[in-house]
Amino acid sequence: MNIPLQMQNRSMTVSGHVRVLQVAADRDLPQIVRMVRAEVDQVLINSPTGWSVNNAGYISGRHLGDSFQDPSLAFPALQGAQFRTTLVKGDDGSWYTLELNEPMRSIIQLDSKFHDMDGMRSTITLVTEGEKLPGLIGFKFEGEGVGGEQLESKEDPGDEVLVALDDEIQGIEIAAQDVGMHEGREVAKAHVVVRPAKDDEVFVGGITLTAESSLASLRAACNSYGISTSGSKLKCFGRLLNHQKGLELQTITHAAQDALNAEVRVPNSPSLPEPPGDAVQDAHRLTHTPYQP
Questions:
Q1: What are the backbone angles phi and psi of residue 11, rounded to the nearest 5°?
Q2: Any bridge partners for residue 40, and if so which?
Q3: Contact 210, 221 (CB under 8 A)
Q4: Burial, 101: exposed, middle or buried (Cβ in 10 Å; 0-12, 13-18, 19+)?
Q5: Which of 32, 74, 75, 149 is deepest in the core (most CB within 10 A)?
Q6: Taking the domains of the chain in order of start, what are their residue ranges?
Q7: pTM for the full model?
Q8: Running along the chain, 293 residues long, what does each successive block of 10 average in pLDDT?
Q9: CA geometry: angle at 226 spanning 158 and 258, to 5°?
């Protein structure tokens, strides 16, 4: 078995997951690792069959099978680090987590069979751009709190602006005076910028967020996406909306490009040699040797 090694500072590290350990009945046998029972949100259970992009901006797949699902077959244009989470319905009717935030690039066989699970069964596959907590992608481990509750804080700091790490490096934003909401800096081509309207909302980890949500919830959602958490409510919510719209645009663009590539056929023609001058052709016709194209 090959185990990928990573470098952290000047040390070599190994990344792995330890789930639930249980001592076997015969103490001469080693300890075994068992699956983790999960409680899945109804939004995921009732999601459309096949691959789709859910309201949280993640790729979601609901299938019936006896093996892991390969997202690259449906989304061949995916780029960057992608992480896969797989939930499977057991014989007892409960959902189990077979893998959580597994880097797809390190999986040798993406469509391998389930271990010790025979027969066709319901599966839910989630693909994210980074490692996500279970509550942010629609489920929780048995015995834990309600999925997504980590988005809420006991204390609402309101609109208090905290200086984040990126502000310390790049400098604090300076608000311009007498500038309307319709004005701003020019945006480079191919960038997506969405200005939130009053009725705009985003769905993150089973929770619907708007520009009026608490600042702690908005910052926690930004942190789950790996985007900046600095600024006021409006700025944090604008970043969430831009990120979600960007994911939707990326999925639509890739699907359109794949459909176009399936219809386009590039003809392969033989190479055409350049003919020589008349004198060379006349001399060649006398013997036709040596062979010339």
A1: -120, 150
A2: 139
A3: no
A4: middle
A5: 75
A6: 29-147
A7: 0.42
A8: 73 70 52 71 86 82 91 82 91 89 86 86 90 86 55 41 43 45 45 51 79 86 85 86 81 80 76 87 88 81
A9: 130
